Each structure stands twice: as C-alpha cells, then as structure tokens.
C-alpha cells in the first residue's frame, strides 16, 4: 500500500485531475460482488485520475458494514498479496470459530476474490493450506460459477487434495454431468481422498460414479429418502436403488428449479408438507417465486412418501 502521502504530495497528485467517488457493486442478494469490484479496480487503474474516493456517499460508506468497508479499502489500496491475506485471514478466523464451537470439520468456500490474479492457482492452494492449518478435517468445494464458485482445473484439484488435513472435495456443478465425471476421475487417483456429492439434481448417478458421501440441500427434508440411495447401493439392491434414485430426481425437479435461490424456501415448504414444521416458515432472502410453487412442493412430498 506504500507510505502515507503528505499534504503537499497529495495536493500534487490531486491538482487538475478528477477524483471519482466510486460506487460499490453488489449482487442481487445484497452481497459485495468481489468479482465486479476487482474488474472495476483494474479498469480504473488505467484512467487519468488523481485517485479515488471510497466510503463516500456514492460508495454508500455509512451503510457498509465494517467488514465491507475493509473489503472496499483493500480492493482499492491493496495488490494481490493484500487481497490474498485478507481472504485467508477471514477464512482462518471463521474456521477457528467453528473449531471453538465444536465443529467436526469445515467445508471451504471457493475463494472467488482471488480469481483473475496472475498466480491464481498458487494463491488458492495457499488459501486452502491456511484453512487446513487450523486442524479441522477440511473439505474443498467445487461450486458452479453462478452460485459464486470457481472452476478448479484437474491439476489444481490434485494439488488441493494432497494438502495435509484435506479430507476430500464436495462437487456441486448443478447440471454438468461431464464436469462431475472428470472431477470424479481426478479424486479417484488421489489415495484417501473422498468424493462428496453436492448434486441435488442427479444424486443417484453421483453415487454410481464413486461419491462416498453427500452434502446436499435436498436432504434437508424427507431425509430418509436421500439416505435410502446409499443404503440400497451398499446392499447391491439395484431395483431399490433405481426406484429411490428416480423418486429423489422427481422431488428435485420440483424443488431445485429456477429461480435456483428459491430452493431454500421450497425446502421449508417441504418440511411443512411432511409434518416436520407445524406451520409455514419463511426464508427472508427468497427471490420472487412462481405462482403455484408451494402447491407443487406439497404434491412432490406426497408423491415421494408414496414410493
């Protein structure tokens, strides 16, 4: 970030130049969009300006949280090393909080703030190694881009899986069977690495591809039906496995549909339909949902329970 400027040197920098009061890009859910923020910083660095003003009215400074203000400042004042340090420090802090609270392990969200750096893969490895150093068993997370993830290359995935303390990787592509197949082959080549399915829309097939566990939203309701897939596969009861896979797929087609962020509210409805929740519950971040969604979820639960 360099040494602080003196009044005189700052005046020289500002004189006869514009200093933009910069806005902060957020996504539709109200989160600071770090990818857009980075793109904006890179573009502005090429403009003939004296500097930029952050935390101003344009940047909604009084409405930002302390963490967001620090993110904005680091984005404009720091280089890749500063950004990496910020991301790693926060990830390690959250992992330590989880450990102190009694967590048995940790799932590491992809560090999207590090995308686009010249040595991106090295920094991603460093990020995962820092989390693993806390001492909790750690699961990496391949998450599809639209949900805020990063497409790890097979070579990067191999580097992640051999980090001491790394248990395996959860793969959630949403709709790419080919990507899941490719990643499953990589995991199979690394001894003692666990392939964890995050595929709500084709869960049964991922078990056939070698997934040893599943970390999925669809199991939040009618949980025994998802668990039945592993039970049937392990028992080599193929007719039961095929029936269970088809039933879960049908349930997923009523709950994991566009808008995808609405699946949380749909799972709450499913819990209500199944009698787990005695009344309707609400997800405050749900997007607008199509008319009839709740009725379709209730019907899907009823159909799943008749299998």
Describe the structure.
By secondary structure, the chain is α/β, with parallel strands linked by helices. Helices cover 48% and strands 7% of the residues. It has a five-stranded parallel sheet. α8 links the parallel β4 and β5 (213-214). α10 runs antiparallel to α12 (293-305) and α11 (263-273) crosses α12. 31% of the residues are buried. The model has no long low-confidence stretch (mean pLDDT 91).
Keywords:
48% helix, 5 strands, 307 residues, globular, alpha/beta
- What's the end-to-end separation, in Å? 62 Å
- Mean pLDDT, rounded to whole units? 91
- Structural class comes to alpha/beta
Helix content: 40-55%
Furnish the topology, listing elements before pairings.
Layout lengths: L6 H8 L19 H11 L21 H12 L2 H21 L5 E2 L12 H13 L5 E6 L10 H8 L4 E7 L4 H13 L4 E4 L5 H6 L4 E2 L8 H12 L3 H18 L7 H11 L19 H13 L2
Parallel strand pairs: 1-2, 2-3, 3-4, 4-5
Short description:
This protein is an alpha/beta fold and 307 residues long.
């Amino acid at each position: 970030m360099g040494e602080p400027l003196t009044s005189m040197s700052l005046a020289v920098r500002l004189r006869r130049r514009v200093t933009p009061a910069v806005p902060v890009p957020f996504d539709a859910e109200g989160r600071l969009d770090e990818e857009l923020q980075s793109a904006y910083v890179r573009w502005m660095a090429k403009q003939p300006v004296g500097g930029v003003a952050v935390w101003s009215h344009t940047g909604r400074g009084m409405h930002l949280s302390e963490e967001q203000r620090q993110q904005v400042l680091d984005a404009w004042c720091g280089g890749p090393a500063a950004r990496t340090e910020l991301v790693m420090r926060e990830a390690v802090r959250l992992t330590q909080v989880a450990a102190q609270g009694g967590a048995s392990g940790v799932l590491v969200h992809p560090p999207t703030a590090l995308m686009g750096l010249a040595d991106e893969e090295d920094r991603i490895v460093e990020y995962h190694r820092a989390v693993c150093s806390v001492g909790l068993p750690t699961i990496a997370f391949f998450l599809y881009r639209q949900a805020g993830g990063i497409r790890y290359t097979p070579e990067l995935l191999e580097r992640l899986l051999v980090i001491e303390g790394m248990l395996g990787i959860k793969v959630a592509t949403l709709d790419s069977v080919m990507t899941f197949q490719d990643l499953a082959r990589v995991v199979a080549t690394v001894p003692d690495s666990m392939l964890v399915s995050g595929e709500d829309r084709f869960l049964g097939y991922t078990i056939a591809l070698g997934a040893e566990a599943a970390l999925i939203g669809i199991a939040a309701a009618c949980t025994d039906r998802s668990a039945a897939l592993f039970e049937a596969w392990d028992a080599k009861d193929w007719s039961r496995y095929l029936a269970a896979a088809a039933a879960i797929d049908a349930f997923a087609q009523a709950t994991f549909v566009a808008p995808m962020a609405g699946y949380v509210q749909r799972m709450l409805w499913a819990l209500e339909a199944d009698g787990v929740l005695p009344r309707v519950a609400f997800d405050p971040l749900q997007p607008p949902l199509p008319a009839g969604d709740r009725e379709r979820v209730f019907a899907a639960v009823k159909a799943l329970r008749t299998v």
